[in-house]
Amino acid sequence: MDKEDNLDRAKRARLDGPHFSDVFTTSPTDNLYHLGMTTASHDLVQLFGDTEVVCMMGSAVRAEVFAKKHLHPVFGGKSELDSVKPFGTTERGSLFKVGKVISMSHGMGNPSTLIFLHEVAKLMYHAKADFSKLRFIRLGTSGGVGVPGGTVVLTDQPVDAELKFGYEHVSLGVKTRHSCHSDHSLNEAILASNKEMVEKGHFRQGHTMATDDYYEGQGRRDGALQPWYSEQEKLAFLQKASKLGVVNIEMESCAFLYFFNRLGVRATIIAVALLDRLQGDQHDVPTATIKEWGERPLKAVTNYLKTSVS
Ligand code: R2B
Ligand code: URA
Q1: What's the gap in Å between 89 CA and the centre of ligand 2?
Q2: Residue with the nearest Cα to atom 2 of ligand 1?
Q3: What is the CA radius of gyration of the chain?
Q4: What secondary structure letter does DSSP report for 165?
């Protein structure tokens, strides 16, 4: 934890642990509102107690594709494909489980993601899942910085939209800054399961910038509003990011890794670059190519899961 806030020592210590809130753990019923499940409505231990890996992604459609097309053939056993159905509500996001792996969506951006992170962590707590085995992986898309479209990036450390390492959170009007990083051994294991992609140069590790906006927050000039910055100023900023070691830009890595670092659970982010932002703001790649690239993180994580789920 950085010392950039005004919390006194006792309050700061609460952020370092114990990790689970004494409020929800002692409530007679806990409502996982956005997942559409409660401790009373579902037998969470029976349904989710054996979970080993939680895979999260922005899109509900992608979460379903991952569950049906990638997880079911490997972990579905004798179950029918039709039996892969979402749990709870699908109004805000979708959650599927195949074998010991959850595939779920979290929407776009740090704020939406944080809601689902709190609720899925509580879900795992109520389910009595083994947190020493649990891993959380975000699979996504991103804009590359100095890497071509199609490159899969494994985040080592995220920076925010000001290129500062870590994540800034506000509670009760107080800003707290939190250092955050991916789990090193998890990254090594994912890379080791995807040697061919690594050797081809299609898979690499680096810093990821997370922003609260797809357009001006990522320095795009093709949004609806007239930006204050020129094309040259945009490129100078992206070059500065690149020199710092940033290889891609997305919208969730800071909150995602902050959350799991605070909880003390292994987590990482894997996202394919859909374009190189040093070359432009929009891509002109055929839809079929974007679809194939979009599935690369799903395939890479499936390769890892094949070797690491009991
Ligand atoms: C990548 O893609 C989405 C924006 O198009 C956002 O969720 C992200 O991080
Ligand atoms: N997702 C982002 O956040 N940015 C991009 O440029 C592409 C996908």
Answers
A1: 27
A2: 141
A3: 19
A4: B
Contacts of 290 (CB under 8 A, 6+ apart): 274, 283
How far is residue 276 CA from its own chain's centroid?
A: 21
pLDDT of residue 171: 95
Q: Residue 2 pLDDT > 70, yes or no?
A: no
Cα(77) to centroid of ligand 1, in Å?
32
Q: How far is CA 234 from CA 223, 293, 294, in A?
A: 13, 26, 26
Ramachandran area for residue 58 (φ above 0: left; ψ -120 to 50: alpha; else beta): alpha
CA 277 to ligand 2: nearest atom:
6
Which residue in the block uniquely carries the two structure tokens 């595939």?
103
Ligand 2 centroid from CA 250, angstroms? 5
Which residue type is seen at 132? S
Alpha helices in 205-266 (DSSP H): 231-244, 253-263
Q: Express each pLDDT in 69-116 by its tens digit.
A: 999 999 999 999 999 999 999 999 999 999 999 999 999 999 999 999
Q: Which residues contact 50 (CB under 8 A, 6 or more apart)?
A: 100, 129
What is the CB < 6 Å shell around ligand 1?
58, 108, 140-142, 214, 250-252
SS3 content of the chain, % helix, strand, coil (to 5): 35, 25, 40
pLDDT band at 10; cut points 50, 70, 90: confident
The reply to whether ligand 2 has any atom less than 6 angstroms from the CB of 218 is yes
pTM: 0.97
Report the C-alpha gap between 60 and 294 in whole angstroms: 14
- The closest of 56, 151, 136 to 96, measured between CA atoms, is 56
Q: Is the CB of 215 under 6 A from ligand 2?
A: no
**How remote is the C-alpha of 257 from its chain's centroid?**
8
Mean pLDDT of 198-226: 97
CB burial of 239-276 (b: ≥16 within 10 Å; e: otherwise) equals: eebbeeebbbbbbbbbbbbbbbbbbebbbbbbbbbbbb
